[in-house]
Every structure is written in structure tokens, then in C-alpha cells.
Amino acid sequence: MRLSERRDVYGEVSREVSRIVRDVEYAGMDLRSALSNAVELSPSENYKEFLHGLITVIDSGGDVRMYLEERVEHFFEKARQSQRTFLDLLGLMAESYITALVAAPLFLLIVEIVMIMMGQDDELIVYLLNNKYTLSYP
């Protein structure tokens, strides 16, 4: 089964490739013209860059297989970097959540308890913090 026929797996890439296949098989275009057409019609900058490189390799008579292997590695590395950045952002958000909504109220509660034990504060803030946690965590 061809890439252009697997829309359920490859999504929009399959649609873009099916346009190239259609131009070559049914419209009688040569591969280079069909690829140039796809470059003009594609909204994806990454895909355009990929096709430009492929056209250059075809024009220069280079090794298409080696080009494809290099591009696969390049795009895998970009995906890894993107995921790493996203996970770092998630980690930062989790740390902020823990600090702001868990550690800070507990720290304030402990400080208030110590101040009450020293006889320097009233019990209103401890009562309010205690009720907040009782209402939040049944």
C-alpha cells in the first residue's frame, strides 16, 4: 500500500503525496514538475523545504535514498527537540503548581502554628487555612 493511500495513518502528508501521485500518473507530468507544483500548493514550510531539497537532488543526479535518510534523521531530531522543550515547559508548570498551591500554604500554616505556640498571633489564619484544606480535600 502506498503512502498516498494511508490517510488514516499519515494524515495531511498523505493528501499532499496523493496530489503528486495524481499529477504524475493521471496528468502525465514529470516528477520534477509535480514536485514543483506541490511546493507551490503546500502550506507547510517544512514540507516545502523537504521538496525543494528533493528537487535539487533529482536535478543534480544525487543519491535520493541518502537524501531521504538524512531528512528523516533531521526531522526526528527536530521532533525530539520539540518534545524535550514541551516536557521542560510541563515540568516548570508542575513545579509552579506545587510551589504555589501546595508548598506555600503548608509553609504559611506551619509559620502560623509556630507563631501561635509562641503566643504572638491569633488562631484566625490557622482556622481559615485549615478550613480551606478541609473544603478542598474531603
Short summary of the structure?
With 138 residues, this protein is mostly helical.
| Radius of gyration, in angstroms, nearest whole number | 30 Å
Main beta sheet strand tally, sense and closure: none
C-alpha geometry? rod-shaped
Strand percent estimate: under 5%
> Which regions contain 5 or more consecutive residues with pLDDT less than 50?
none
Number of helices: 6
Q: What's the order of the H and E elements?
A: HHHHHH
Structure summary, number of beta strands: 0
Distance between the termini: 55 Å
Mean pLDDT: 84
Helix content: over 70%
Which structural category do the helix and sheet elements fall into?
Answer: mainly alpha
Task: Throw out a few tags for this protein.
138 residues; mainly alpha; 6 helices; 0% strand; rod-shaped
